[in-house]
Amino acid sequence: MSARLGGSQPGTNQLNIVVGITGGIAAYKAVGVIRALILAGHDVHVVATDAALRFVGKPTLEAISRNTVDTDLYEGVAQVRHVAIGQAADLIVIAPATANTIAKLAAGLADDLLGNTVLASKAPVVIAPAMHTEMWQNPATVANIMTLRSRGVTVVGPGVGQLTGTDSGPGRMVEPDEIVSAALAVRRPQDFEGRRIVVTAGGTREALDPVRYIGNRSSGKQGIAIALAAAARGADVTLVGANLEVAAPASVHVQHVVTTLELADAVDAASQNADIVIMAAAVADYRPESIAESKIKKETQGDRLSLELVKNPDILTGLARSRRPGQIIVGFAAETEPDDAALLELGRAKVQRKGSDYLLVNRVGWNEGFATDGNSVVMLDGRGDIVMEASGSKSAVADKLLDVLARA
Ligand code: C5P
Questions:
Q1: What is the distance between the alpha carbons of residues 100 and 367, in angstroms, rounded to a whole number?
Q2: I need a surface site. Which of 20, 52, 283, 322 has the fewest CB within 10 A?
Q3: 211-265 pLDDT, tens digit each
Q4: pTM here?
Q5: What distance in angstroms lies between residue 229's CA and the mean position of ligand 1's atoms?
Q6: Does the domain at residues 196-407 carry the CATH identifier 3.40.50.10300?
């Protein structure tokens, strides 16, 4: 018992995190929250309400959390379990938090294991509400949320979007990565407080005609992870997102763009008063010289079709040339080179050619780099010297990058 609920490990950053799951459709997304916390190296104990287990199965939660799942107030009574879990917790994250659970927390009720756990704990509490718009806007819920906030509970979201039925509006639980980032931020240093950071993410697309484009497979996950981590560490973040495949976080200012020229304009404007610009987006180097007004037809083109492309401006090089004293410019280099030494040489040549302060080199391929949850990077400074190497989840890579920038 004490080993299983022993609190954070001394000398490591591992936290003992209780994930409370309550009965809403969004309970399936709690699996993503648990997984991300485990990948970030934390020890996760799930406390699920009976209603939550109607939406997501105990075996799934146990497999993902790598711990047994606690649900019943009357199990393990000999170990005084109803208080032990809360006492050992470093952090409590409740996702989803239903209107009913929010009301119970506000009233301080302890009629189930989760209620007891929260009451018996001194750990920070983070909740991710999920409910229909009418319930979220009901004066009872509004008052309960105010009460919880006034007691120091961190409320993440809810977002605005598609709800369970055909309706949409405020009430949708925010995505797991954002919940995790906000939860860990509660215990994070605010070492970017007062700093303005611009991050680009995703991949630009260049239209050929009204329905087709030339693009790349970048999902935007690495850039979003950097934006989230920076916001969690206190930065004022502007995310310039090009065709993002995952939802943009609510904790940052977001500007959506499609093409390289649009990205260039957005970055140009946002970087004017930024302290740091991080170019994680995969930017199309060429665009069609002209865009067809109507759909290009095979009937009129015949067996071959040639596209005339013109070069796009290199935004990173432009930023590096025109940077203000003290402004830090960071680029990424996604390369398919299989040999490690040759990959590093490509990176060294690129950082010197582009003139950025740092360059993160990563390998991409059919199954590597783009659209995956993990990444492996080598970070070079402007001279081409290695200043950091990281492998792991995209959020872990994001934090390591920010650790370097915090010292710069
Ligand atoms: O030259 P390469 O495309 O490998 O450079 C990658 C880095 O340069 C990334 O940081 C990317 O965002 C940036 N880039 C840019 N403008 C381009 C092409 C790439 O800013 N036209």
A1: 43
A2: 322
A3: 999 999 999 999 999 998 999 888 999 999 999 998 888 779 999 999 999 999 9
A4: 0.73
A5: 22
A6: yes
